[in-house]
Amino acid sequence: QIEQRDQDACRGFLQEDLEKWKPRIIVALGSTALQALWPSGPGSLARAKGVHRLGDRWLVVTDPPSKHIAGRRNLTAEYDKIFELIVRLLSGIVPPLRVRTSPSVTPGTK
User: Which of 24, 86, 98, 103 is deepest in the core (most CB within 10 A)?
Assistant: First the structure.
């Protein structure tokens, strides 16, 4: 588990990269990434899993690779769906109904 002070120390670098690269889609792999990108979000990974619109960006939230590595779950099929979703989003195809629209928030800020 990442300690809060480590996450706080990296927040400036994350914000700098987001401003520099201006990604249209961000994938949060797990609760640590979710908290770093969307501190004011729904809190738990279980509630946040899915697709969210944060301002002009898409935030795709899913399980961390550690669940797959630890053998707790085979995430291959889920990750295949995530990559398919990213391709659709990049093509301008908005996913139906499962998209959760969130208030305009800059990822990484409260």
Answer: 86
Task: With CA atoms as reference, report the closest residue to 86 among 17, 30, 22, 26.
Answer: 26
Give tens-digit pLDDT for 74-109. Answer: 778 888 888 888 898 889 887 754 455 554 445 555
Q: pLDDT for 43-80, tens place per residue? A: 888 889 889 988 889 999 988 888 777 666 677 888 88
Q: Which amino acid is at 87?
A: V
Tell me how far apart the alpha carbons of residues 50 and 85 are, in angstroms, rounded to a whole number.
10
* Cβ atoms 51, 98 nearer than 8 A: yes
Sheet holding 50-54, edge to edge: 25-29, 57-62, 50-54, 99-101
Residue 44 DSSP one-character state: S
This prediction's pTM: 0.77
